[in-house]
């Protein structure tokens, strides 16, 4: 029964989501003495297999294109992306074949020769974990990308419930994302920031300029909750406060040179631009420093206001960039809602009002409620070094859900 | 400027002890916070308190910080020279985006250039497709505009000259296609009135040069007689503050030869008079008009 226990051990260690599509419970039909069969091992969903096949054909086409002398940037990038996906896929296939042949041996052996069984067991011990990790890696790569996955990111942070403590937490989250960007060596800039009281923030907009960072950071969207004793609390009581994080793909630079292109995205009359009017006659009569610009997207009613820059055109450019991002996010929400309504089982992760994560100071713990993952290193999370562990767990959970809904 | 309640001062103080000083110059606390933030970002800490006191005295923020953004340029600002206005920035940018589409070898002059902002931004935007010159009567303006030109390394010919002296203007260039100007346009009667009665802000009256502000029709008359006509220009954009000024300018030109219109600013106020010689390559200026006269 040794193999079964290894198998169970692996199962409990890695969690059920690593087993990929179609894993049966261990009560499935056993075809060998040790009660293990291929159906119980991780395997890819048929539609992902089909996608791998499509990619293989595509790669061949690209190969002929390149050997016939086409050498443009786009073809090259495509070629290297696809080959790296197929490399992962080859690993997966390789491990699966290995494991299959070991199991086949076990089947034929039927439990008579202890030495062979021992060999098989030790090989399974080596290969099953490898198969598991290869499966989850290739799944992430084969699953269709979300739109704008290759874009930089805009993150909007605002305090929720909890007064000034929520404002301080908003500032903590901002630092966490800046630290995270620094550890990844991603460029970033603060687009705007409004300070509240006691070192807190009433709003912050952060731009992470690395292309593709959106696909990582989008998992941070949602309500974050903190449980701790505020510095101002005299009786030592723990408070619960929240901050909301909205993550958007960044579609334009948001500077004077991108402004023209951004404005062109909209039909005349689609946007109302309000500049804070200077009093009276304006012009030489007054000297205003109010450079705020507010955009209203008339069809959706979305409003964006920017005032951090002393330059009005710069505020306008930033506002346009943020507006485009928000509209892209809205498109994506609609897309998800449509997909959901086609499905019978509801995916619970993307509800805006849901708390996605809790930062518990007294327990030194960060728990992500979407995947149940807990990191017992709050400091490491806030310093940006361990945040990726959480994001990866969320990503895996998302992949699992998406595969289930395929 | 609204009355400042003790409550507001208390609230401001709880955010920063320096913030109350910014309340007098600003209509609300969020703008005051914004100004304090800019001061803290741009000046060394040792100067914050002095800056706050000056601002309490309604001293212009741009003189405190030493600059004002104008398009993508940071224009150096100093006492005795008018601070560039956002309304001016707006029309200059609009003008440049129209000219960029079809301008070729334009010769432009900016009369009464002050800090040099109009001429410098035009050169910055239009690059080699335009030759730009500028002049001002004031020595302070002349020196500051030179300083700004050098800071941005822009090829603009700047001269100290008086718009009312044709002989001085002759030295600048033999001909100009396009005349730009933001001359003093506030009638003396309004110069003395508060903003609420269509007059001017206290801070402007107290700290910006009167000679850059007070004027009525005479400057437009000079611009037409001493620049547009003798230099054979085929277009002009003149900033102004009153519809009467636009109508006055319109009357200087015969309708068969010249088209003319009004540009309004982002607040909906009449802001520029625009003119173009019919059939010339500057009839594209018509696109800037919110109203044809
Ligand atoms: C309203 S300010 C405009 C400054 C600048 N063009 C701007 O838009 O910020 C008017 C300028 O006209 C200048 N000025 C006044 N009388 C003048 C004259 N007779 N000839 C040339 N410049 C004159 C003043 O020195 C002042 O700099």
UniProtKB/TrEMBL annotation, chain A:
<dbReference type="InterPro" id="IPR000352">
    <property type="entry name" value="Pep_chain_release_fac_I"/>
</dbReference>
<dbReference type="InterPro" id="IPR050057">
    <property type="entry name" value="Prokaryotic/Mito_RF"/>
</dbReference>
<keyword id="KW-0648">Protein biosynthesis</keyword>
<dbReference type="InterPro" id="IPR045853">
    <property type="entry name" value="Pep_chain_release_fac_I_sf"/>
</dbReference>
<dbReference type="Pfam" id="PF03462">
    <property type="entry name" value="PCRF"/>
</dbReference>
<dbReference type="GO" id="GO:0003747">
    <property type="term" value="F:translation release factor activity"/>
</dbReference>
<feature type="domain" description="Prokaryotic-type class I peptide chain release factors">
    <location>
        <begin position="277"/>
        <end position="293"/>
    </location>
</feature>
<protein>
    <recommendedName>
        <fullName>Peptide chain release factor 1, mitochondrial</fullName>
    </recommendedName>
</protein>
<keyword id="KW-0488">Methylation</keyword>
<dbReference type="GO" id="GO:0005739">
    <property type="term" value="C:mitochondrion"/>
</dbReference>
<dbReference type="InterPro" id="IPR005139">
    <property type="entry name" value="PCRF"/>
</dbReference>
<dbReference type="GO" id="GO:0032543">
    <property type="term" value="P:mitochondrial translation"/>
</dbReference>
<comment type="similarity">
    <text>Belongs to the prokaryotic/mitochondrial release factor family.</text>
</comment>
<dbReference type="Pfam" id="PF00472">
    <property type="entry name" value="RF-1"/>
</dbReference>
Automatic annotation (TrEMBL), chain B:
<feature type="domain" description="Methyltransferase small">
    <location>
        <begin position="96"/>
        <end position="210"/>
    </location>
</feature>
<protein>
    <recommendedName>
        <fullName>peptide chain release factor N(5)-glutamine methyltransferase</fullName>
        <ecNumber>2.1.1.297</ecNumber>
    </recommendedName>
</protein>
<dbReference type="GO" id="GO:0102559">
    <property type="term" value="F:peptide chain release factor N(5)-glutamine methyltransferase activity"/>
</dbReference>
<dbReference type="GO" id="GO:0003676">
    <property type="term" value="F:nucleic acid binding"/>
</dbReference>
<dbReference type="GO" id="GO:0005739">
    <property type="term" value="C:mitochondrion"/>
</dbReference>
<dbReference type="InterPro" id="IPR002052">
    <property type="entry name" value="DNA_methylase_N6_adenine_CS"/>
</dbReference>
<dbReference type="Pfam" id="PF05175">
    <property type="entry name" value="MTS"/>
</dbReference>
<keyword id="KW-0489">Methyltransferase</keyword>
<dbReference type="InterPro" id="IPR050320">
    <property type="entry name" value="N5-glutamine_MTase"/>
</dbReference>
<keyword id="KW-0949">S-adenosyl-L-methionine</keyword>
<dbReference type="InterPro" id="IPR029063">
    <property type="entry name" value="SAM-dependent_MTases_sf"/>
</dbReference>
<dbReference type="GO" id="GO:0032259">
    <property type="term" value="P:methylation"/>
</dbReference>
<keyword id="KW-0808">Transferase</keyword>
<dbReference type="InterPro" id="IPR004556">
    <property type="entry name" value="HemK-like"/>
</dbReference>
<dbReference type="InterPro" id="IPR007848">
    <property type="entry name" value="Small_mtfrase_dom"/>
</dbReference>
């Amino acid at each position: 029964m040794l193999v079964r226990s290894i198998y169970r051990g692996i199962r409990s260690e890695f969690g059920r989501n690593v087993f990929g599509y179609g894993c049966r419970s261990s009560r499935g039909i056993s075809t060998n003495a040790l009660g293990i069969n291929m159906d119980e091992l991780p395997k890819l969903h048929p539609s992902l297999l089909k996608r791998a096949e499509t990619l293989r054909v595509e790669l061949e086409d690209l190969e002929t294109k390149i050997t016939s002398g086409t050498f443009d940037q786009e073809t090259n990038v495509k070629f290297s992306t696809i080959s790296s996906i197929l490399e992962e896929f080859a690993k997966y296939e390789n491990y699966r074949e290995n494991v299959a042949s070991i199991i086949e041996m076990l089947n034929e052996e039927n439990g008579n020769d202890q030495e062979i069984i021992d060999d098989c067991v030790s090989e399974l011990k080596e290969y099953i974990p490898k198969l598991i990790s290869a499966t989850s890696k290739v799944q992430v790569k084969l699953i269709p990308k979300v739109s704008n996955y290759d874009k930089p990111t805009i993150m909007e942070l605002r305090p929720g419930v909890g007064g000034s403590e929520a404002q301080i937490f908003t500032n903590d989250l901002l630092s966490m994302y800046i630290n995270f960007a620094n550890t990844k060596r991603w460029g970033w800039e603060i687009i705007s920031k409004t300070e509240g009281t006691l070192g807190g923030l009433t709003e912050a907009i952060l731009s992470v300029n690395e292309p593709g960072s959106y696909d990582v950071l989008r998992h941070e969207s949602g309500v974050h909750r903190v449980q701790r004793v505020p510095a101002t609390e005299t009786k030592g009581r723990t408070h619960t406060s929240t901050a909301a994080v909205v993550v958007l793909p960044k579609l334009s630079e948001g500077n004077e040179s991108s402004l023209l292109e951004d404005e062109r995205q909209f039909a005349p009359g689609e946007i109302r631009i309000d500049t804070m009017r200077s009093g009276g006659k304006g012009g030489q009569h007054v000297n205003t420093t109010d450079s705020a610009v507010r955009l209203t997207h008339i069809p959706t009613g979305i409003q964006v206001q920017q005032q951090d820059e002393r330059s009005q055109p710069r505020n306008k450019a930033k506002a346009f960039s943020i507006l485009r991002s928000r509209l892209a996010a809205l498109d994506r929400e609609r897309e998800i809602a449509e997909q959901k309504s086609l499905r019978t089982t509801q995916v619970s992760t993307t509800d805006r009002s849901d708390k996605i994560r809790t930062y518990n100071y007294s327990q030194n713990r960060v728990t992500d409620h979407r995947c149940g993952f807990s990191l017992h290193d709050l400091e490491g999370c806030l310093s940006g070094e361990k945040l990726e562990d959480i994001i990866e767990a969320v990503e895996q959970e998302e992949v699992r859900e998406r595969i289930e809904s395929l | 400027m609204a009355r400042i309640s003790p409550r507001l001062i208390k609230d401001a103080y709880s955010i920063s002890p320096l913030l109350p000083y910014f309340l007098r110059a600003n209509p609300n606390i969020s703008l005051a916070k914004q100004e304090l933030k800019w001061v803290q970002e741009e000046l060394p800490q040792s100067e914050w308190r002095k800056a706050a006191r000056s601002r309490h005295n309604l001293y212009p923020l741009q003189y405190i910080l030493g600059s004002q953004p104008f398009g993508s340029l940071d224009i150096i600002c100093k006492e005795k020279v008018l601070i560039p206005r956002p309304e001016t920035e707006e029309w200059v940018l609009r003008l440049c985006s129209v000219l960029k589409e079809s301008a070729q070898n334009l010769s432009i002059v900016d009369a009464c250039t002050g800090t040099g902002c109009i001429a410098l931004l035009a050169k910055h935007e239009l690059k080699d497709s335009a030759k730009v010159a500028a002049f001002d009567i004031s020595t302070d303006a002349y020196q500051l505009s030179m300083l700004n030109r050098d800071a941005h390394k822009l090829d603009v010919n700047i001269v100290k000259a008086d718009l009312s002296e044709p002989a001085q203007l002759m030295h600048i260039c033999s001909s100009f296609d396009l005349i730009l100007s933001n001359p003093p346009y506030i009638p003396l009667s309004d110069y003395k009135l508060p903003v609420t009665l269509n007059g001017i802000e206290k801070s402007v009256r107290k700290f910006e040069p009167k000679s850059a502000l007070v004027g009525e029709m005479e400057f437009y008359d000079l611009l037409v007689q001493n620049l547009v006509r003798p230099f054979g220009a085929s277009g002009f954009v003149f900033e102004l503050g009153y519809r009467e000024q636009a109508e006055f300018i319109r009357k200087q030109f015969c309708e068969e030869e010249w088209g003319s219109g009004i540009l309004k600013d982002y607040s909906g106020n009449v802001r520029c008079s625009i003119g173009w010689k019919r059939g010339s390559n500057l009839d594209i200026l018509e696109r800037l008009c919110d109203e044809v006269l």
